[in-house]
Write a structure and sequence with these properties.
With about 190 residues, the protein is an alpha/beta fold. About 25% of the residues lie in helices and about 35% in strands.
Length: about 190
């Protein structure tokens, strides 16, 4: 049986843990390179993208995680996790870096600051409507044709992807872990062989 990990440095760790437990999976909370070696797929949670990037460096996880991703490890990033997996971060800090596993450009806080947070139903391919919770969410502004768009949202300025995948790497602008609906997690896990 494959092992699922959740990057447990900062952010919505408990929420992702509860969601995958509701699907019958007991995840490994990944805080060290040794724990990373034990998992076959990894969830990168929402949180604060620059804090997560800093903690990936100080924990010694940045290089081992980059290696695992480049070797084809499955990953699912929500909000800040999407930023970490993106090829380009618009409006990021000058020292901001990412793993560049999804050929997309994301704008941090692309749907507005904290006070502009909102919830809306999102139509997901093969699932139907799921709740979308957007909190300081990144907006995907450019995407390569090899990136598969599973869901989009029009926030008054045209359609933008909000759930994408490229191979075994998935990214989500919103927070599926902040609802009681586990369908997106289930779809990802089914896709990567759980």
């Amino acid at each position: 049986m494959p092992r699922l990990g959740i990057l447990a440095l900062q952010g919505d760790v408990r929420e992702h843990q509860a969601t995958v437990q509701s699907l019958g999976i007991e995840p490994t909370l990944v805080r060290t390179p040794q724990q990373l070696e034990e998992v076959d797929a990894l969830i990168l949670p929402g949180g604060e993208s620059t804090a997560i990037a800093h903690l990936l460096v100080t924990s010694g996880l940045r290089e081992p995680l980059a290696n695992r991703l480049n070797e084809g490890m499955a990953a699912f990033g929500t909000c800040a996790g999407l930023i970490a997996l993106s090829a380009e971060v618009l409006d990021g800090r000058s020292d901001q870096w990412s793993f560049a596993m999804l050929d997309v450009a994301v704008r941090r806080n692309g749907y507005g600051r904290q006070v502009a947070s909102f919830e809306t139903p999102i139509e997901v391919e093969s699932l139907g409507l799921v709740p979308g919770v957007f909190i300081r969410a990144p907006r995907i502004e450019r995407w390569d044709p090899q990136v598969e768009v599973l869901a989009s949202h029009d926030h008054g300025d045209g359609e933008h992807p909000v759930l994408v995948k490229q191979g075994a790497v998935w990214g989500c602008s919103f927070h599926p872990e902040l609802t009681s609906n586990a369908e997106i997690h289930g779809l990802f896990l089914q896709h990567v062989g759980f």
